[in-house]
Fold each of these.
Amino acid sequence: MKKIEGFRCIECEAECGPTEAKYTCPRCEGNLQVVYDYLRLRKRLTRKSLSADPDKSLWRYLELLPLAGRGGLPPVSVGWTPLYRTRKLGSELGLKNLYVKDDGRNPSASFKDRASAVVAARAAQTGEKTVAGASTGNAAASLACMMAGNPTKPIIFVPKTAPPAKLAQLLVYGAHVFSVGGTYDEAFDLCRKACDEFGWYNRNTGYNPFTREGKKTCAFEICEQMNWRVPDLVFVSVGDGNILSGLWKGFTDFYALGLIHELPKLVAVQAAGSNAVALALKNGGAIRPVSGKTLADSISVSLPRDGTAALRALRESKGYAVTVTDQEILAAIPALAQGANVFAEPAGAAAYAGLVRSASAGRVRENDTVVIIVTGNGLKDVSSAMKAVGRPHKVGTDMASVRRLAMRQRLV
Ligand SMILES: Cc1ncc(COP(=O)(O)O)c(C=O)c1O
Ligand SMILES: [Zn+2]
C-alpha cells in the first residue's frame, strides 16, 4: 500500500501515516481523507495513458485507489456508467448542455457499488475475514453483491424501513441481515459497536476512509467522458454526504495531477426533512441532527456521517445546497424517465428535482454545462414510483374493449 502517503483529518487537519489509523483520526475521531503521492502519480497517469487503457470499469483508476494490485477485486464490472447528453430534458429547463450520469447501471443498481468494490478489495488484500456495514439499503446491497462469492458473507445492519427490493438483494446475495428495529442512524452506531466488539472490518460510510475513495471514481469518469471538459455544475443528492465529498475528492485529485485545470461547483440536493447539510451551510455552523424524514429512503439521514467533508466540498467548490419536498422528488421520477429515459429511485431523482428548483430560481444559466447524477435505479423502490404515476388502464380480453379504450385515450 506504499502509494498512500497517509491520511489527513477532515476535522482537525492532523496528518498521520498510512498505518497509524484504520478508520478515524487518532487525535479527534474525525473522518479521514486519503493522501497520495501526487508527484509520483503525475508521471504515471496522463490523459494519454488513460485513453489507451481498454479497461471500462473503475479499475482503470487503480493507480489512484488504496489497493495493492488486482488481487481480491470483485468479479463484477463496477463503474464506467453511461453519461447521456439529454437535449429533451435540457430544453424543458432551457438548458443547452444537460447530462445525466446513470449510476443505477452498476451491478447492484446503485452508485454505492463504487465504494463497496474498493472496500471489499481492500478487505481481501489486508486479510480481513468478516466485513460488516450499516446502510439505508444500497450500500448494504452493494457490499452483499461484491462479496457474494466469498466464503465469509458480510454482516449487514439495515433499518426495518428499507424497501423490500433492497432487502431481497441482501438475502439473495447471501448476506447475514440484521434488520434493526430503528433508524439508519441507530443501525450505524450498532454496527460500529459490533465491529469493535467482534473485530469485524467496518464498511460504514465516511467512517471507513476508503468509501470516499471508491466514490471519487465517478468524477474521474465524468472528466474523461466529457473529453476533459469540466462541467460547471454537478447536482447530486445527499444523505451522509459521502458521495458529494467523494465527487469533490475525485475532481481535486485530477486537478492535483494536472489532468484538469478547472473545478466544478457541486450542488447538494437534500430532502426537506433530511436537510442537515443544507442547514449547516446556511447557518455557517456545524452539522446538527434533523428528523431525517423523507420518502427517499436512501437519503433519510438524521446526522450525516460525512457531513463535515460534504460541507467542505460545497464551500471549496463554491457550490450550494438545495432542499426539495417529497412531492418534488416524486414528480421528478417520471419527468426524468420521460425526459432522459432513465428510471431513478427517489434519491436518484432528487438530483433532478434539485436542478428544477435551481433553474426556476435562476441559479443555472442557459449555457452552463450541468451534470445530474442518478445514484440509484428506479426498480429499487417501485412503490414510491407508483405514487408518482397513475394506474394502468383496465381492458377486457376482447377487441371491442381495446377499441373503446384506444378511442377514449385518443390513440386512434
Ligand atoms: C441512491 C442513493 N442516492 C444518494 C445517496 C446519498 O449518498 P450519501 O449518503 O453518501 O450522501 C445514497 C446513499 O445511500 C443512495 O443510496
Ligand atoms: Zn482529527
Amino acid sequence: MRLRRIVMGHCGATAAIVGVAAACVGLMGAGRTIAQDAAGGASAKAQAAELREPDARYKVDILLVVAHPDDEGAATAYLARAIDEGKHVAVVYGTRGNNGGNEVGTEQAGALGAIREIEARRALATLGIADVWFLGGQDTASQDVLQSLANWQHGAALEQLVRLMRLTRPEVVLTFLPGTFIGEDHGDHQAAGVLATEAFDLAGDPTVFPNQVAEPLRRLEPYLEGLRPWQPKKIYYFPDADREDIFKGKGPSFSVKEISKSSKKPYWRASLDSFRLHETQAKGFVDRLNKMDDAEIEKMMAADGWASDQTFVLGKSLVGGATTDPIFAGIESGAIPFRRAAFSVEAPKGDVEVTLAGPWSFYAEFRAAHQLTHLPHPKPPEIALQEGTTLIVPLWVRNSTGEAREVTLSAELPSGWTVTSGAGKVKVGANQTAGTRVEIALGALSDKAKGRDGVQAVTVRAESGEKSVGEVVMKVELRKKALPE
Ligand SMILES: [Zn+2]
C-alpha cells in the first residue's frame, strides 16, 4: 500500500485507478528510485524493476506505403503470400483518395475520402491486415511529385510517417518507385515513394523529431512520445511506369499463380478479391465479376495481366545479399544500427550551365542523397501528356562567374509543335542560379484510334558567348488523356 501511495504522488490518480502502479514505476525514472527505496534494502536488490517495452502488438515485418485507397493492389498478391508465411503487415496511405471518381454514389471530395478510407480498411481486412493509417494528404492530380509533396504538407506528413515507422518497426518497407516515367506517373504515387525513402533513412536517427524518442519525465508532460529510433533493413519499390525493360533483374520476382496454403486459391485471386471492395473505383468491373464463376474469372484475369509475375526493385538492403534475393533473405530479428546517409552536393560543372529543373533535378539530387543512384530512371527524361496541352520545360540557369551573363535559349521540336514562350535571350546575374522555363504547345494526336502516339523528342539548347552551355532532351508521348504535367 505504501508503494502505491508514493507512486500515486508522482504519477497521478489515473495510474492508481487503473491499478498499474508497477507500470507507472517503470515509466518514471524518479518514481522508480523512490519505489525501490520504499521497498527497502535486500528485497529491492533481488527484484529488479521491470522497464516497459515498446508495444509488441504493432511490430510488423512489412510496412507498405502507398498514396490512395486501392494502390495497395500493386502489392496485395505478394502480401497475401507473406501473410501465409506468418509475416505481420501494416499499411500507410498518403491520402484518402478524395479526388478520385465515384462509380457508386454522388459523394465527392471529403465525403468520398471518408468512403474510400473504409473501402481500403475492408479491402485489407480480407487479407487479415488491420493496422492501417492515413497521413491525411490531399489527393493531387498531376504528374509532379513536388506538387503532391507540397499539397500533403511534406514536413508534417514525414513527421507522421517517421512516427509510424518507429511504432511499427518494419523489417522491410515496400512502396512506389520514386521517379517520373511515361505511365500513369501519378505525383501522389511518387510522393509516397519519396516519403517512405526519407522515413527509411530518418527513423533510426535519434536527432530527427527527437520529441518522438524522448520519454516524459514529469506528470502533465504529454508531448514526448517514448518511441525508440528504428532502422528498417530493406526498402523495395514497385514502379508506376508503362515500360518494364529497365526494371528487369533489379529485384526479386514472384509468381502470383502459386496456391495459397490458407485460401487454397492462387495469390492473384487474393489480390482480386481484396480489390473488389473498392467499389467507388470499379463498380462496373465488380458487378461483372459478381456474375462470373471461378473459371470465367480466371480466363478474364489472365487476359488482363493480373496473373503476371510481381516484380520489385531493390532500393537498398542494409543486411547485404544480392539484388534479386527473396525479400526476407538475410533478415534476422532484432535491431540493426542506424546508418546515416553520407551525401555531398556535386559542384557546378562550367562557368555557365543550363540544366533541366523541376521534378527531374529533384530526383537526381534525391537519388544521390539517399544512395539510390542505381535506381532505374529513363534517359533521356520522358513524360506522357495530353494532346493539345502545353509542355513546360523548367530550367536552372547557373552562372558561376563574377559577371552577369547572357544566355540564348532555343528549341528543336516535332513538326506542328511550337514554342509559346521562354525562347530567346535571358540574363543571369553574377554567381546566381535562376529558374526559367520554355513553354511548348503540343500538337494533335496522329493515331486517334490507338489513343497514343510514339515518343517524340524535344530538345532545348542553351548558348552563351557563342558556345553551348547546355542541351536538355525530353521524350514526349502524346495521349488522348493524361494527368497534367
Ligand atoms: Zn493511386
